[in-house]
Structures are given as C-alpha cells and as structure tokens.
Automatic annotation (TrEMBL):
Residues 3-99 form the MaoC-like domain. This is MaoC family dehydratase. The lineage of its organism: Bacteria, Bacillati, Actinomycetota, Actinomycetes, Micromonosporales. InterPro entries: Fatty_acid_synthase (IPR003965), HotDog_dom_sf (IPR029069), MaoC-like_dom (IPR002539). Gene3D superfamilies: Hotdog Thioesterase. Belongs to the enoyl-CoA hydratase/isomerase family. Transmembrane segments: none annotated.
Length: 137
C-alpha cells in the first residue's frame, strides 16, 4: 500500500426498509429515521439515515479494500450532511471511495475516505488507519 493508491468506489443502496432493520439492530428508534412528519417537523427535508449506519457502510468499504475488519486499527469521521432516504422502493445511494494518504509507523497506512450521496459529501474528515496490504494492489 503506497501513498496515492486509490481504491475503487463502492456503492451502497439505502432504503426505508434498511432504516427499519438498522433501528431494530441498534435500538435507535428516533422517528426522524422513519417518519416524514417527524423529520420535517424538526426542520429536516425528510427521513434521514442513521449517522452510524452511514459510518458503518464507509467502514465496510474500507474492510473490503484491506481484506477484512481485523486490518482496521482506527476509523474516525464527522457527519457532514444527512442522507435523505425517499419513501420509495429505490431509496438512495451512498458512494464510498478512498485513497492512501500516508504511511505511518509500524506498517500502518492512513486511508482518507470520501462518502457522498447525490453528489453531496456526507462524511467529513473520514479516515481509516489500517495495517497490512490491501486486496486491491
């Protein structure tokens, strides 16, 4: 893994059904994740995906690039923009890409991660520290 190595973009589809399943798994039943009335009532443009779900999808992309979750030493991000999930069968798409920014000590590489939805950046300052070689070299 060398600085400048780019990883292929991965696309994840997110539907309202996914939000319901994630709510059940996480215990986060906040109505902004399933009710348009509640979401718009608090000033959102519509139902939004759970932030931790979007972060988890970005981490899933990293795990795929580096050969599994055991290679991930650290993952961090800020939530930049919400992921609006329409009330239809198609949902929306999150696109995750990454590039090796630099090599650190002890064989650890920093991957800068970009996640977008509808062309809008949804995660800010997203980075993964990983150990070992990637599958994509």
């Amino acid at each position: 893994m060398q600085p400048g190595t780019e990883f292929p973009a991965q696309t994840f589809r997110v539907t309202r059904a996914d939000l319901v399943r994630y709510a059940g798994a996480s215990g986060d039943f906040n109505p902004i994740h399933w009710s348009d009335r509640q979401a718009t009532g608090v000033g959102l443009p519509g139902v939004i995906a759970h932030g931790m779900l979007t972060m988890g999808l970005a981490a899933q992309a990293v795990a795929c690039w580096v050969g599994g979750t055991a290679s991930i030493v650290e993952f961090s991000t800020r939530f930049a923009n919400p992921v609006i999930v329409p009330d239809d069968d198609k949902g929306t798409e999150i696109v995750v890409s990454g590039v090796v920014k630099k090599l650190l000590d002890d064989g650890v590489a920093q991957i800068d991660v970009t996640a977008t939805c509808q062309g809008e950046k949804i995660l800010g300052a997203a980075k993964a520290l990983v150990r070992g070689e990637s599958r994509n070299e």
